[in-house]
Amino acid sequence: MSEDTLANLLIEDRSFEPSPAFAKQANAKPDVYSLAEDRLAFWAEQAARLTWDAPWSEVLDWSGAPFARWFTDGRLNVSVNCLDRHVDAGHGHQTAIIFEREDGSSEEISYADLKDRVCRAANALTGLGVGAGDRVAIYLPMIPEAVVAMLACARIGAPHSVVFAGFSAEALRSRIDDAEAKLVITADGQFRRGDSMALKPAVDEAVAGAPTVEHVLVVRNTGQEVTATDKDVWWEDVVAAASAEHTPEAFDSEHPLFILYTSGTTGKPKGILHTTGGYLTQAAYTHWAVFDLKPDHDVYWCTADIGWVTGHSYIVYGPLANRATQVIYEGTPDTPHKGRWWDIVQKHRVTTLYTAPTAIRTFMKWGDDWPNQFDLSSLRLLGSVGEPINPEAWMWYREVIGGGHCPIVDTWWQTETGAIMISPLPGVTATKPGSAMRALPGISATVVDDHARPVADGEGGYLVLDQPWPSMLRGIWGDDERYVTTYWSRFPDVYFAGDGAKLDDDGAIWLLGRVDDVMNVSGHRISTTEVESALVSHPAVAEAAVVGASDQTTGQGIVAFVILRGGAEDEDIASKLRAHVAKEIGPIAKPRQIMVVNELPKTRSGKIMRRLLRDVAEQRDLGDVTTLADPTVMNLIGEGLAASKSDD
Ligand code: WT7
Q1: Closest residue CA from atom 23 of ligand 1
Q2: How far does residue 83's CA lie from ligand 1's centre (Å)?
Q3: Which of 2, 165, 298, 628 is least enclosed, having the fewest CB within 10 Å?
Q4: Does 3.30.465.10 match the CATH number of domain 518-644?
């Protein structure tokens, strides 16, 4: 094993072919990879899915690399592509959004109705002085107005910056400030576990420190009281009063569509910039090919929040451009009971479910009885995104949720890539539990070693994207230099995604997490993901997080934090798990220490904050905990560690 590459330790040899019935009806056929060998011709063909007001002159202008221009000189309006053209084609009555509230009531919004709402909102925004190019911050819960607000911004060419409504006033202020937003769209509050939680006070606090904001447009959602400020305007006053007639303007293919902030290695969040024609082309194509969308039959449900890129590309832009009917749920998975999601699948006959491994593992922990109480037979396709999915979680998803008959698409992408890059095609690819398999047609991804040389099958290294793609970020808002140094400097002329990956003997890609999550034990680079997967494959373990802590003898030692399944308490569990990892991966990967905990520190998007666990493992004071979903979990974990002793 070369020192330059990641150890390839965990071997998975299960593989699942698509059923002949699925393959026969699938949107993407096996010949698509060879048809896409001419990448530019392929993407030009996909761009023809959209309605353009003026044709493009060149598919890709890469002369200013790494700043790309796709479909140059083409002009289009994103909201027309998501709404008007479907209504004009006679689909105005089709349901666009099935809005499910936490209390179990629901509402259906047709394409014609959604178009009217977006036109009214667009007129209202113009009335508030927002024009093309002005930035609008959106801080809203998962309600239809969030979709309406985004599309209204797109309609008038005002780039939106959606800020997750769980973020603090300070996080909101710094994002408003960086983008110099002119307008903030928010709500009085949001429903969470039966309670209404205020949103407006955080906005008031943020806006007090953000002089660029001229107005705050407030949606009445919970009906709770709000303190008025002189910038407030009520959605129900200005949007309802506005005309539903709106003549859209076509924008340049490279016109900014949105900014979305994502955390970086330094404290300052990065405003990832996406533009119009290329972004919508890849969002629409991937949604059609990967989720196999049949607009006349499917009921699609992506459980992400609108505050993440998944909500942008796979709730708003991709699905609506493809005329999907989709569920949007404002609520938590365990209110009023832990079967809430399965209840929604049964109620609306959901066919396609797209969610995250962290949710899947939580449901595993809650037990099979919850999903088993509901009729999930409408499901025909399952998707996963956000982090590597452990093989055991994948198998559980397949068997318990998918009834053993739904293809699973494990989709790798990033805020920066804008749309899915690596994924099985559901009617084509034989899938392996835990692998995202291969780059999509029209996309080129490779795994390289420290010297940018492609690694051989069976080896690991760094994931890079070596050809530009239509929905790629066009930069970091206001900081071109940071764009170049962050993504294009580690290896010459290729985009480095920050992830480790390995190729198996068949050349399938296995994501191994962020490279800063790689451990170095006695000179062997071991991925935290592989050790976590080995732990989760033990029947007693529901969830695991692994970090490398500095170790005098081995460089780093592996410290594992595990959540046990209900009823799995056992005095000897630590030594059993160490033996299990040794058997699954090899003695080199045996954790030095295993901590049984009740919770793991996670960001609000569900990613485990290994940095904090490393602080605990190395007995340091905790670093910044402000992005934790629940800051108290670290106290509990810290106390537990102090009370435990290493079992070596
Ligand atoms: C990072 C990007 C893409 C939308 C949600 C996250 C990790 C994402 C997978 C996957 C393994 C994955 C990567 C990536 N990631 N999907 N299917 N398998 N890892 O967007 O917040 O920009 O995070 O999420 O580490 O770099 P994001």
Answers
A1: 414
A2: 29
A3: 2
A4: no
